[in-house]
Amino acid sequence: MVHTSPEALQEAIQKVSRSLEDRMAELLSVPERSSSTVISMNKTSKQDGETSHVRGADTVLEAMRYSALSGGKRLRPFLTACSASLFGVSWEAAIETAVAIEFIHTYSLIHDDLPAMDNDDLRRGKPTLHKAYGEAAAILAGDGMLTYAFQILASPKIHSDAAVRCDLINALATASGCWGMVGGQMMDLEAENVTLSVDEIIRLQRLKTGELFAVSCEAGGILGKAPGMMRNLLRAYALDMGLAFQITDDLLDVEGTRTETGKNVNKDKIAGKATLVSVMGVERAREHSQRLIEQAISHLSVFDKKADNLRALAEFVISRKV
Ligand code: GRG
Questions:
Q1: pTM of the model
Q2: For ligand 1, is residue 110 a contact (CB within 6 Å)?
């Protein structure tokens, strides 16, 4: 039974999004001019006194801002904020952790859109980063976000106990690296025009998108030094919810429009990608996603009404149109 209304859920997501975006804007702001970040070059072809600038870090930060502050549902940050609230973790630590996770997510979208991967020109209703800034800047902006995420997590702002910070860094690196998202992305590229079984698709999607959802939700438990059992329940909730989210994404690719979703549609079929929708059919896949959401919510019973926003989020991810 879900007690949070859809309006209250949207309000709660907005609250997290505002804090998240304020902090991201701060972290991605261009620092005061200094001779170490900007190289002034006197070009022989220029008039005396005229200089041109190599902006270096400033260009990368500008590109990072373009992607990070271009909207997005902020589901992973919301998971972190909700799970942190279950264990009395401070809002500041939850948001700081959420920024690191959202940076990893944003980097994955930037790199996924590159010509060598999904080769896409539209993301969140805007030109993809490489279309706006060029491929090299997009690769570097993605690299910048990935490394910045771990720099943020290493800071005492996250937690005064270094062991907690290490735990979080380890969990996020595992979820994002070759045993998680990077491995899943490679499987996805290799699987084009290959027939996959339902189990193989589930495994691929767990690595590609599920593990990042799982660590986003476990993060509150890590920050709150929660018992392993509670961390595992939060992971189980997020993995079931994440798979239902992915099925919805695949349904939107089949049934949605470019205007509605802010991204190109019908991409899976064109790329020859097997999805649970292509293998099970639209109706069975939709029913399966509903069962996954019921299962996800059942993992939260130990948390009582404190977890109502997580329950409402699970219902929301399968009803979304974006
Ligand atoms: C490049 C290492 C690397 C990994 C890319 C996540 C990913 C792996 C690719 C994204 C491709 C994609 C469209 C996957 C479907 C599910 C998904 C992660 C959608 C995007 O996430 P949302 O809907 O995005 O949460 P917003 O824009 O709301 O933040």
A1: 0.91
A2: no
- For 5, counting Cβ atoms within 10 Å of its Cβ (0-12 exposed, 13-18 middle, 19+ buried), the class is exposed
CA nearest ligand 1 atom 20, residue = 109
Tell me how far the alpha carbon of residue 213 lies from the centroid of ligand 1, in angstroms. Answer: 11
CATH of domain 6-28+55-317: 1.10.600.10
User: What does each of the 322 residues of the chain score in pLDDT, given as a tens digit?
Assistant: 678 999 999 999 999 999 999 999 999 998 765 555 555 544 444 455 555 567 788 999 999 999 999 999 999 999 999 999 999 999 999 999 999 999 999 999 999 999 999 999 999 999 999 999 999 999 999 999 999 999 999 999 999 999 999 999 999 999 999 999 999 999 999 988 888 999 999 999 999 999 999 999 999 999 999 999 999 999 999 999 999 999 999 999 888 878 877 777 777 778 788 889 989 999 999 999 999 999 999 999 999 899 999 999 999 999 877 7
> Domain limits of the chain?
6-28+55-317
* Residue 108 CB less than 6 A away from ligand 1: yes
d(CA 125, CA 109): 13
DSSP helix/strand/coil, 141: helix
Of the candidates 239, 262, 199, 203, the one whose C-alpha atom is nearest the C-alpha of residue 79 is 239
Residue that is written with structure tokens 């019921």 in the block: 294
Ligand 1 centre from 244 Cα, in Å? 14
Residue 244, CA distances (Å) to 206, 255, 269, 292 in order: 11, 16, 19, 6
Are 213 and 313 within 8 A, CB to CB? no
122: how many CB neighbours lie within 10 A of its CB?
15
